[in-house]
């Protein structure tokens, strides 16, 4: 399948190529929404701006890394001269579609967490709330903002399915060539990933509501909400699209699990200790939102072993607005009881495990080197 879009040859080129692919998709999708009604088009424009305003493009990068790994394998199950086989343009489209799943997850996550900002800008539900208020509409602006953002998140998920399968919203099926069908195994990975991320998100809110402080529950959320969805499934998606042999897919899935957990553990640290200028979210946001992260679970368990008063102070810091002094106290407790050091050690161990698997995997040296460098950046990121 030919494409006018730039095809990345390296992982460093993936974010810009994904940006171009998404912009081209929205050039079709937003006018299609506007043909329903101008107000629907305006809502779709909010989604376009949200998706294209930035982001690390981690998931597409891992998906394309899986494609590079699989397509460079001498034992791939797809013949290189098969004109019906997926090509690099298909891999880019599939990788880019993950950003629309991510948009759905982030829009809904911000509603769940009652977040006001994302990447230093107003969250989608706040945008609609402000528009309702500015236009003097009837009803509660906050409720309207939430309802509108839920639907925009649903639209992002629907468009993710359109994009991954090569459908152009609003196109005339009578005059548009049908897209090349995805291989059935690729569709299976895609379907599993969507269910896992929603299941992980549900477990996350159940843990918050039930006050489940166990380390086991925190890691189960990470396994499905982040590890599988952020790294393991994208790697598997790209490798499966390329027809990678089963052994390589297994190795990449193992790498993805380790790096996905490391990614979330780093996110847990940034959610409490991160610099708002770099993360784009308020400092201590995870504590305020009441997230039962692995860091918090580890901190509570360690504090309870040595000092009930510290455990109680930390527990009282979860799920409510915090003053600067209260946030400072919570950080000190997490550090003093050794929770921060434990999470850092786990990140290092998971990175080492992933790198060990990469060293033995059936990869060409250029692909191995790129994945190794990318893995290190993910584990040690500051945003």
Describe the protein in words.
It is built from 16 helices and two strands. Helices cover 72% and strands 1% of the residues. The protein has helices spanning 14-36, 38-52, 58-71, 88-112, 124-135, 141-164, 184-210, 215-241, 246-273, 276-279, 285-289, 294-306, 308-315, 324-336, 339-360, 365-379, and strands at residues 117-118, 121-122. Helix 4 packs antiparallel against helix 6, helix 8 (215-241) runs antiparallel to helix 12 and helix 9 (246-273) packs antiparallel against helix 15. The radius of gyration is 22 Å and the shape is flat. The chain has two domains: 11-54 and 87-181, no CATH class; 182-383, Farnesyl Diphosphate Synthase, CATH 1.10.600.10. The chain has 383 residues and is mostly helical.
Features:
383 residues; mainly alpha; Farnesyl Diphosphate Synthase
Summarize the structure.
The protein is mainly α.
CATH superfamily of the largest domain: Farnesyl Diphosphate Synthase
Q: Could you tell me the strand content as a percent range?
A: under 5%
Number of domains: 2
CATH architecture assignment of the largest domain: Orthogonal Bundle
What level of helicity do the residues show?
over 70%
Task: Assign the structural class, choosing from mainly alpha, mainly beta, alpha/beta, alpha+beta, or little secondary structure.
Answer: mainly alpha
Question: What's the total count of β strands?
Answer: 2
State the low-pLDDT regions, or none: none
Q: Give the rounded overall mean pLDDT.
A: 92
Largest sheet, in brief, is: 2 strands, antiparallel
What is the CATH top level name of the largest domain? Answer: Mainly Alpha
What is the number of helices?
Answer: 16
Order of helices and strands: HHHHEEHHHHHHHHHHHH
**N-to-C CA distance:** 36 Å
Strand order of the largest sheet: 1-2
Radius of gyration: 22 Å
């Amino acid at each position: 399948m030919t494409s006018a879009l730039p095809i990345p040859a390296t992982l460093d080129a993936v974010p810009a190529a994904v940006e171009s692919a998404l912009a081209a998709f929205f050039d079709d999708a937003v006018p299609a929404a506007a043909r329903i009604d101008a107000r629907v088009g305006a809502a779709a424009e909010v989604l376009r701006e949200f998706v294209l305003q930035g982001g690390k493009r981690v998931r597409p990068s891992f998906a394309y890394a899986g494609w590079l790994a699989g397509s460079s394998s001498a034992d791939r199950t797809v013949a290189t001269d098969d004109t019906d086989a997926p090509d690099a343009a298909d891999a880019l489209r599939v990788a880019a579609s993950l950003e629309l799943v991510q948009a759905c997850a982030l829009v809904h996550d911000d509603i769940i967490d009652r977040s006001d900002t994302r990447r230093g800008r107003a969250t989608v539900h706040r945008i609609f709330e402000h528009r309702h208020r500015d236009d003097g509409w009837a009803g509660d602006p906050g409720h309207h903002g939430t309802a509108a953002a839920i639907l925009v998140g649903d639209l992002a998920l629907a468009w993710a399915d359109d994009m991954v399968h090569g459908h152009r919203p609003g196109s005339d099926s009578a005059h548009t060539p049908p897209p090349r069908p995805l291989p059935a195994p690729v569709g299976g990975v895609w379907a599993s990933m969507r269910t896992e991320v929603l299941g992980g998100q549900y477990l996350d809110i159940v843990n918050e509501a039930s006050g489940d402080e166990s380390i086991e529950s925190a890691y189960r959320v990470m396994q499905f909400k982040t590890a599988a969805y952020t790294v393991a499934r994208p790697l598997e998606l790209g490798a499966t699209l390329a027809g990678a042999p089963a052994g390589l897919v297994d190795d990449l899935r193992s790498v993805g699990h380790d790096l996905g957990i490391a990614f979330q553990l780093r996110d847990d640290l940034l959610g409490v200790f991160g610099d708002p200028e770099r993360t784009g979210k308020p400092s201590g946001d995870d504590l305020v939102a009441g997230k039962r992260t692995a860091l918090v679970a580890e901190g509570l368990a360690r504090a309870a072993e040595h000092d009930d008063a510290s455990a109680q102070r930390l527990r009282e810091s979860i799920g409510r607005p915090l003053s600067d002094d209260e946030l400072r106290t919570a950080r000190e407790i997490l550090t003093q009881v050794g929770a921060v050091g434990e999470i850092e050690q786990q990140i290092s161990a998971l990175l080492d495990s992933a790198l060990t698997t990469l060293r033995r995997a059936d990869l060409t040296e250029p692909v191995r080197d790129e994945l190794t460098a990318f893995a290190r950046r993910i584990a040690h990121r500051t945003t």
